[in-house]
Amino acid sequence: MKNRGDYMEYMGKILITIGIVLLILGAVILLGGKIGLGKLPGDIFVKKGNFTFFFPIVSSLIISLILTLILNLFKK
């Protein structure tokens, strides 16, 4: 980077990108329960007495795929 202005522009773009990703992630979390994320076949849910274990494998894969596609759109 040649001068401080270039650095500030670069940091601004990074902060905007992080903000957009957080906005999308927040929307996915809010709307996820309504569209079935967390209750998909393949999500592991075990409840025995006081012990509860939940690991949303399939939901995590779907969210990862969506975020990868979105980030690849911004990359181009």
From TrEMBL:
Keywords: Membrane, Transmembrane, Transmembrane helix. The chain crosses the membrane at residues 12-33, 53-74. Pfam families: DUF2905. PANTHER family: BSR5223 PROTEIN (PTHR36443). This is DUF2905 domain-containing protein. It comes from Anaerosalibacter bizertensis.
